[in-house]
Amino acid sequence: MRIVSLRRYPVKAMGGEALSSVEVDARGLVGDRALAVIDADGLFAAGKRGSRWRAMEEVMAYSARTADDAVVVAGPGGEWRAGSPELDAELSVALGEPMRVRGEGPGERTFFDSRPVSVVGTATLAWCRDELGVDADPRRLRVNVVVETEEPFVEETWIGSELAVGGVRLRAVKRNERCRVIDLAQDGVAERARFLKPLGERRDACVAVYCEVVEPGEIRIGDAVAPA
Fold this sequence. Notes:
alpha+beta, eight-stranded mixed sheet, three-stranded antiparallel sheet, 4 helices, 15% helix
């Protein structure tokens, strides 16, 4: 098994960036979900509702990438540097209330929904396309690592075990239970989909696995993935 794609999301809920390689530290892919769009009450703008976030789909019209040690956000009206008053003003208008982009504070929980690294296999994506008749573009799942696999959902058999992923060691922890976000247009995928309902009927709404970082390092497209 080998890595076939890597993706990082510098700003939570926005579109992300494709990578050929990335450093991984104890927190996860360096720079992944490092920033979030926050309202006056400290809740994140997202594509869903929850205890820490608000359903504000407008944020998903924006994408973020790293450039010269900064994060640049692109949207319908242009590009802005993350942390700038101009970006905060743009997002406040787009989302209809005062918003700002910020990073995690000292001692604050990370901006991840659950665990820091998400992994899915190509055979799992193919199963979703063939069996559910859906657009199973991995960008809908907002995963970090896509691994070339031959057996659908083989990644779920890794739960409780460690994986050697290039120069990194991960521990697969749990299945990733999906939400309505996988049905939304996002991250360069222009159309909505009817993905969540059939996935719930056939697979308990779960696809991909969450992992924790055991040993930091670097991962690259083409790196081998194997039980440690």
